[in-house]
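Listing S7. Sequence submitted for prediction.
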Amino acid sequence: MQVGLTGFASLSWPGLLKLRAENALKPKAERTAVIMVFLPGGQSHVDTYDPKPDIGSEYRGPFKTIATKVPGTHFTELLPMNAKIADKFTVLRSMNQAAGGHPAGTMQMLSGDPDVRDKPKVKLPDWMAVTNYLRSKEGKRSNPLPNYVGVNPPLEYNGPAYLGDAYSPFSVTDDPNRPNFEVPNIGLSDDAETRRLSDRVVLRKSLDKMERAFDREGELGALDEFETQAMTLLTNPKTRDAFDLSKEEPHTRDRYGRNRWGQQLLLARRLVESGVEIVTSQLSGPLCGRVNNWDDHAVNQHQFEALRFRMPNYDRAVSALIEDIYARGLGKRVLVVVTGEFGRTPKISFDRSTGAGDGSAPAGTLQPGRDHWPRAFTNIWAGGGIQTGGVIGASDKRGEDVIERPCGPGDFLSTIYHHLGIDSAKITINDLNGRPVHIVGQGRPIPELIA
């Protein structure tokens, strides 16, 4: 203390002013953001990022392996564009969890719920709603955009649970690739209409003063959250610009792919650039094949024909997003993670098709498939200031079990929270009974995925 005081006392008034000026020029810590690309149904790890070319025909698919930009790392031929930029992301090949059903598997991955039983309703809030809740408590944001946006978001087996609907995403459900794509309820361009809307809100507030006295459940607090967000979206012109893909150069839109998936991920990038901190985008629908997801049971679709059908669009969109994150100076602030709830069985099964369509033979045709497999699967990570170009962990020779650096849902969630500046080991949120619940029950950030 004495040394410190002596040093301070020795500074002249001009010296103090100089220090103040220098500190004023130091940039404040940027608000970090996450883009999660979700693959509902589960991507086959052995047919994509964790190929097993030397296993028997009962397991091995028809796809050749290709070298990537990272020496010694190989993907399948379905991922040529990913392979060219493999130095820009990290492959985690040792993800595993305990639930074999879509509902429980999704809840494990997105909320950390350890229950392996499929439930009709979520018990714990997902990491997106938790982040939205915690960051909303930090004070008023200057950004007019919502803090959490879902561009075709995963909503079926996750949600805010006891946090309430105020912390759900602002959802964009329309196809961003449509020529007349427009997000409703944002950016009124008519000043007169904006004034009329403001007048209506003032009137509504004057009428509900008495009602507030009888608000026993605190429901009007959530209403205020919705109203404030809705008003800001409607009256601030910045909101319309953030969602306007026509402001992108045509060659950029082409690079992502002129289809729903490509434009979803381009919109996700635009949103984080505009200050949105949580963006989720689910790659589902007709681009997946007949059953609109990655659930490649033989009864649903021909495993390998479905992959041939969907992977060119996936490969292009994901590689463009990862490249853009770095090219546009977002490589430290924005973390990108691509995952499903589990992988697919390494052993190929056969069953009769239940219907013809993209990636599926006519009904009654015997065709190959892979079933649910939570014991070992892969996800990829980019941005976030992490060291990229590597592989974390390993599955066995058939891709059935993790044999090196096992990582579970708690580790997955803790890593995301760490990037967002949230100490998942310490933070609790009260449930509906007022009981404090840890946002992650167990797990720790994956060291190789920490900046």
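Caption to Listing S7: primary sequence and predicted structure tokens for the chain studied. The first strand starts at residue 33 and ends at 38. The CA atoms of residues 415 and 445 lie 4 Å apart.
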